[in-house]
Write a structure and sequence with these properties.
Mean pLDDT of chain A: 93
Largest sheet of chain B: 11 strands, mixed
Order of helices and strands of chain A: HHHHH
Helix content of chain A: over 70%
Number of helices of chain B: 23
Largest interface: A-B, 41 and 41 residues
Low-confidence stretches of chain A: none
Strand order of the largest sheet of chain B: 1-29-2-3-7-8-9-10-18-19-21
Mean pLDDT of chain B: 95
CATH class of one domain in chain B: Mainly Alpha
Strand content of chain A: under 5%
Number of helices of chain A: 5
Low-confidence stretches of chain B: none
Shape of chain B: globular
Structural class of chain A: mainly alpha
CATH architecture of one domain in chain B: Orthogonal Bundle
Largest sheet of chain A: none
Radius of gyration of chain A: 15 Å
Oligomer: heterodimer
Amino acid sequence: MKFTTSILLIVILSFALGLYLPWWSIAIAAFVVTAFIHLRPGASFLAGFIAIFVLWLALAAVIDMRNQHILSRKLASLLPLGGNSFLLLLITALVGAIVGGSAALSGSYLRRRS
Amino acid sequence: MRLVPFLISSIITIALIVVLSLQWGTVPPLGNFLSPQHGLWKNAEDVEKSFNGDLSFPGLKGKGQVFLDDRLVPHVFAENEQDLFFIQGWLHAKFRLWQMEFQTYAAAGRISEVLGAGANDRYLNYDRSMRRLGMIYAAEQSLVAAEKNPISKMQYDAYAAGVNAYIDELTPDQYPIEYKLLNYKPEKWTPLKTALFLKYMSYDLAGKDDDFEFTNLKSLFSKADFESLFPLYADSLQPIAPNTPESPYPTRPAIDITRPANADSTYFNYRRDSITNILAQKPDRDNGSNNWAVAGKKTKSGRPIICNDPHLGLNLPSLWYEMQLSTPDFTAYGVSFPGSPNIIIGFNDHIAWAVTNAGRDVKDYYELKMRDENMNQYWYNGEWTATTKRVEVVKIKGKPALNDTIAFTVFGPVMYDNHFKVDSTSIKYLSVRWKAHDPSNEGFTFYGLNHARNYDDYLAAIKNFTCPAQNFLFASKSGDIAIWQQGDFPAKWRRQGDFIMPGTDSSYLWKGIIPQQQNPHLFNPSRGFCSSANQASTDSTYPYYLGNVFPVYRGYIINRKLSRMEGISAEDMKAMQTDNYNVKAEFARDILLRTPVNELNDDERKYFQLFRMWMLRNDPAERGATIFTLWWRELEGAVWGDEFSRSNLPLSWPSENILIESIHKDSAYKFIDDIGTVERESLDGVLVRSLRKAAAKLKALEKEGKLEWGKYKDTRVNHLLRQTAFSRLHLPIGGGAGIINATKEDHGPSWRMVVELTDDVEAWGVYPGGQSGNPGSKYYDTFIDSWASGKYYRLWVMKPGEQNDKRIIAKLSFSK
């Protein structure tokens, strides 16, 4: 339950902060949520990882569909990912997720007693 | 708190963020770039996006409305001109911001600031060459001139305010994607940037010269050989303005253009000089264009038809942005330059205008004698004379800035010196005297043309145009057609400025500017048409020197076609504008057919037969066009290669027409003989030899399936950063150099326009791009396929009250 709540809160807070702050505000969101909601370090990492993965994947996928993949195809051949839009989505989500997971881990250690 | 794991995981998190916030080589900072709320995904435009909007800006005086049609062409209606140009600036910024700014970076020599120094300092050397050419100095000069004119000042200021109104409201996530890729941000727009952009057009169109290559040629050839390889007038020349009783040339020059007394010994001294370093980037020699107008007596409607297709580098985002500008006083429609107010090529309710490049040499070099390497003094008219200095700061991404000091003299800025060398074996001080350095207000010409109602208005407008000189073509509803080669042309003696000139006294300076009324022109010629295609504007009876290299064949075929046509319709003109007939091949055919077939092997004979059967059209599926192109190139190599390869210096080769005309005059043409062999070669021999070389290449092409002209030529439209992903490749289109449809590999008709001046002006146009500069928009390359297949769009001049027309997809309201 706490795990799911954490994920949800990270998703909501990340999205809200992202409207006003630079991209790394996802780390603040993940850090703050896992600092307040007590989870084991592994679970915290996973919560941050999943939350940002889902958030970034969903946001990007919706944009990509509405764009009919015009830009993602071009960038996926520029970066270079063989022109595969899906790979670009996956990399987008993974990059965010790693930062989110790592920040969430830090947050959980802040709370955790030795 | 568990301190150690906390510290470790925090450091890892921060390190991750830092790594993802830095640029690694050409990889942009990935955190921001991939974030769906900040980066690339924000540039992926919803295909259903609505462009509607209500906008208010304190800079506006009244109300304005913009209607976007289904091709995203804006139809702008403003109550006054100040608001009109504000809105034009805002629209340019909204749809083309990155491009318009990047072009001014290119103009001002600031590419390294964005891209770094480049491989082998490629970008840095380009930047330094632009600074040393005096680009910023020239833009400053022209801005001073423009701001003396209250209308121009109003235009430039209102335009800049409009651009800035857009930039001010931009948040970083809304930046065009190129800013995110290159990790920089837009600057404020200024009138100087508009001036810089217009100077860039001067550079592109009047910045090409072969002075160093020609100087090197002097050391390789005798005077007689040089004159035969580089004659001034082609046999097949159809000048823009022929010398006729109804439009006679001036009989003598208005300015004394006798050449300096010591010219033979110090200037025409064949065998003297060497220049080893030639700039890697130069304006394309084929920057040119076609335009023609036919009078009512030759058209079906009885009204003039005017046509234009400017040939420039094919780029995305396009150089052009199509739009309609309207106030209660005037309506102009056509293409504009993002970066500058006005319509540049187009029409209004009364007249239409079109431009091609004059291409005359207005950029000359002088070799100076400096007192020492500090360049404080140079020898001029018998005494040491002080230079003035200007320090240019060239910022370089990832490196400290470079301070480049440029000395200015009466011969212009010292472009090459001990710090920027033109020769690897010695230090030379070369000044460049360029017409674009002089104060002028070209923008006012376009303002005048947008408003012009008749021939007199047109003539008054174009007189403001000094550089880059253009062939301004005109047609009016009232039935007039005219063409003027307009610009400030230095009155030159024969071959003045073809080579580097001595710069120690005033005798080699330009002696004055040809009076405007003596510029080549035609007004309602009895032949019923005016045309230009960058050929020499006059024949040899014109009393001034035009310069040395002009293309011939497009002008020739255009005039041949127009003189034979009657009852012309707009459809005929579209067909002509996209025509792929190769008139050079027509001239060359009989020479190639002299090849002794019995000396050919099977492959060679096959290609020979294909060439013989070829109908001389460079359509995409034609194989003959590829065979001709390769064979002719090999033939030129076989004839001239032995002479030209005697030197490692950069050299210019003779023009497209020279070999054809030389062999037609004399089949025992002197240069056919290979100077490296004892025996004397014959035309038959070089024909076989060149076909043999070409056949080997043709066979390889055929194996790759690239023998067809369209596949061989492989036309593409490049993104300005040469990003393949943002470019359009492998376009199935014919044409080529010397053909009316002058589409080459990445260069060609950048806008095609046909305007018939009936009561309700009817017009058609297309350009190889799209109205949006955003690679993530469906409007980014909308027109390319139509352009490649030779289709046109009907240009719709919207009238007030037509806001419910079904072509309109969005409305933007502007108020204060």
